[in-house]
Amino acid sequence: MDKDLEGYNIYRISSGDAEKINPVPVKENMFTDNSMPDIRYVSYYITAIDTAGNESTPSREVIIILKE
């Protein structure tokens, strides 16, 4: 891990707009979305945050399709 890496922000897109779903930067390489909306399709992307508060460009989106 880079010395100046603070962590990651996780964004969810469920109804058009992206919403940051973590209150503080995530330091682990796993995250559970416990506030998942009651929908079938959702996508996520992440950004890296450095210790100065700079945010990277977004990662590629990951699309999740939930079973009914």
Key terms for this structure?
68 residues; mainly beta
Fold and architecture overview:
This protein starts with a strand and ends with a strand. The model has no long low-confidence stretch (mean pLDDT 91). Strands 2-1-3-4 form a 4-stranded antiparallel sheet, with no helix packed on it. The chain is elongated, with a radius of gyration of 13 Å. The relative contact order is 0.31. The chain has 68 residues and is mainly β. The chain has one domain.
Brief digest:
This protein has 68 residues and is mainly β. 0% of the residues lie in helices and 43% in strands. A hairpin with a 1-residue loop joins strand 1 and strand 2.
Q: What is the first-to-last residue Cα distance?
A: 38 Å
The main sheet orders its strands as: 2-1-3-4
Largest sheet: 4 strands, antiparallel
Number of domains: 1
Which descriptor suits the 3D outline?
elongated
Instruction: Write the H/E string, N to C.
Output: EEEE
- Please mark out the parts with pLDDT under 50 across 5 or more consecutive residues, or reply none: none
Strand content: 35-45%
Helical amount: under 10%
* Cα gyration radius (Å): 13 Å
Number of β-strand runs: 4
**Total DSSP helices:** 0
Mean pLDDT: 91
Structural class: mainly beta
